[in-house]
Amino acid sequence: MWYEYLILFAIVKECYAVITQLNDTEYGRMPALFELDDYDTCLRKFNSLYCLARLDLFADPPNDLIAVINEYSEYTAKHYNHSYIERGVCIATTCKKYINNTNSNILDLNASLEACLNQTIWNNYGLQAKLTHIFYCNKQDDEIKYDWSDWLFGGILAVLVSINIIGSFYDLMLEKYYQDKKGDKYNNENPYILCFSIPRNWESLRSIKLKDYRVEGLKGLNGIRVITSFFIPIAHVMWLIGTGFTDNPQEIEKASESTHYQLIFNGLMIVQIFFVISGFLMVYNLEVLSGNVPVTWSLLPNIFLYRLWRLTPVYFLMILFTATWLRYLGSGPLWKLYVMSVVSDCRQYWWAHIFYINNYFPEDKACAVHTWHLAADMQLFVLGSIMYIATKSKGRSLVITLLLLFSMAAPALHVWFQDLDALVIFKPEFYRSFWNETYRYLHVLGHNNLSCFIIGMVSGYFAYSWQKNRVEVFRHKIWQYLAWCVVPGVVGLILTGSVFYTETRLSLVIRMTYAATHRAILGVITAFVILGLVFKIENVQRHLLEWDGWVVLSKLTYCAFLLHLNMVHILLGARTQLGHVSFFYVVINHLGIVTLSYLAAIPLYLMVEVPFNRLIKTLIQDTMEMNKKKL
User: Where does the signal peptide begin and end (predicted)?
Assistant: First the structure.
């Protein structure tokens, strides 16, 4: 009897086998994941129809090919799900004999399209295909109709341009008529109109002067901000090749085996650098402010208002553009899939973005997904400001310790209760479906990013206190040696994420430990770099980060960050043929998108970000002067 059980065990094991790798010949036996008929040629034909559809593959047993497909697809950490395929089909050419009337009802279209594609799959692969979803069908005369939201964005844009023209003209007239009476000019000018002067804002962009010696010590933060911002878009550029409709998807499935791709996949953690900087600057600036005015609860609304006013105008304009005019910037067989879905989500969830709570709405899958960082940062800023004032007199060390412990426990508990991965694993299906539970329920939530913000706050306290009391902490040579270990240390930390790209999922304890600690480790490294800049631990790297050019680029970073993802969406949606996967393609697109983002950021910075920042500063200054006069 024993051999019968052995045979049964072997059969069961085979049923649940996972194929981790296929040679090119075996891989080529499977139906191509993606195919696109010629879109432009198709729609030139009279009364033609172009449909994008999903088909699920199946076969009557026994069929070795469907078994290979299912077992290969089981390795979800590295492989696409090959049990379903996606096709862009020109009805007039590919399925002409199945569909004689393109105006037939949807049931007839579904049945005819399924019969057509099923026959093609059967003839080529001996498999059957069930049409599970028609994403949409495009016609030659399809047009997007304008609505009130398009006019609203156009009106806001017209007002902004007009105000900037008026402000610039006003400034030029002052320069022309009062160049010999500068005193009179500055006494009689309207500072509110001049906030919208493009020449003045251009000078502000070009200026690298720093007003405070303490700010001079923070100059290197510009370098950190720009360099980090340069690498952020590369993960989004991966969408161009990872989402699908490529002629060699096997390269994406092999990507996790390459070190350079692992640096991209696991490099998502570098966004934590911004949380450290944000926490540091919040505390440092409040400490500086407390030397001039008492920082009490009465000041808290002004602190929040200033931050909201500084970030929201540009952000709101970008969200409104995405929800309206973005849809008119292109067309193609994939435009509705990759662009209109973004537009639709922005129309539905714009309010969540404006209130900086979009990272807690997993239903918002596509609208400005990169701005989860802004929402989390705003949430942490509010929490940090309240904590700063609440612990002004006592209990600060205890509260910081408790918050730090909570910030490390929270991600671990998410992993435990929701059975998540320790970090976002860039599975091919994540790109394809725009959905990953670890991303939505761990990575983007504000409380799970608290550790780096707290570490930044602590470093801000130390920096201000040591500067104020002239404490020399970093005199020993060992700190210089540690400074040179920072870059290798960060790269090494990023590469540790590669251990999770395995056939067998790592244990819960390992996943919880990694989720709890890797952010804090990167936060400590970043805090050390910031303190090293302030106290001049090492000169070579410090001079690199304090290069004057970073000051100008840093001013454009926020606008460039907001703009870059829409460029990715446009490139995705405008594609009319299958793309090709290669690391060179990723690099070229990354450089192009970053360059275009910074160029597009210039007018946005000059006409929106700077004017509104100067406007709130002018209002605050005038309010303070009025209060002084009342006293």
Answer: 1-17
d(CA 282, CA 307): 11
Q: How many CA atoms lie within 13 A of 86 on its CB side?
A: 18
**Co-location of 218 and 185 in the same domain:** no
Query: Does residue 181 form part of some domain?
Result: yes
Asked if 214 and 198 sit in the same domain, the reply is no
Mean pLDDT, to the nearest integer, of 170-176?
85
Q: Which residue has the tokens 């998807």?
A: 249
Among 2-6, 195-199, 274-278, 588-592, which is the least confidently predicted range?
A: 2-6
pLDDT the model gives residue 5? 38
Q: What is the pLDDT of residues 202-228, one digit of tens each?
A: 999 998 876 666 677 788 999 999 999
pLDDT band at residue 1, thresholds of 50, 70 and 90?
Answer: very low
Model pLDDT, residue 12: 36
How many domains does one find in the chain? 3
Could you give the CA distance from residue 329 to residue 352 in angstroms, rounded to a whole number?
25
pLDDT at 241: 83
* C-alpha R_g of the chain: 28
Judge if 133 and 233 occupy the same domain: no
User: What pLDDT is recorded for position 344?
Assistant: 95
Q: Shortest CA distance to 602 belongs to which of 563, 569, 565, 575?
A: 563
Which amino acid would we find at residue 78?
K
Reference 428, options 130, 25, 73, 88; nearest CA is 73
3-class SS string, 231-288: HHHHHHHCHHHHCCCECCCHHHHHHCCCHHHHHHHHHHHHHHHHHHHHHHHHHHHHHH
The burial of 445, by beta-carbon neighbours within 10 Å (0-12 exposed, 13-18 middle, 19 or more buried), is given as buried
Domain range spanning residue 383? 208-586
Sign of CA dihedral 208, 213, 214, 216: positive
Q: Do 344 and 491 belong together in one domain?
A: yes
Mean pLDDT of 100-118: 76
Please say whether the beta carbons of 493 and 518 come within 8 A: yes
Q: Is the pLDDT of residue 409 over 90?
A: yes
Angle (deg, nearest 10), helices 198-206 and 610-630: 100
Instruction: Share the mean pLDDT of the chain.
Output: 89
Residue 592 belongs to a domain: no
How are beta strands 84-90 and 34-36 bridged, if at all? parallel
Q: What pLDDT score was predicted for residue 564?
A: 96
In the DSSP assignment, the letter for residue 126 is: S
- Identity of residue 378: M
Residue 628 belongs to some domain of the structure:
no
Q: How many angstroms separate the CA atoms of 578 and 583, rounded?
A: 16
Single residue among 586, 603, 618 that ends a domain in this structure: 586
Q: How far apart are CA 349 and CA 347, in angstroms?
A: 6
Cβ atoms of 460 and 279 within 8 Å: the answer is yes
Q: Is residue 170 located within the same domain as residue 290?
A: no
Q: Is residue 616 part of a domain?
A: no
The predicted pLDDT at position 136 comes to 92
- Which amino acid, one-letter code, is at 9? F
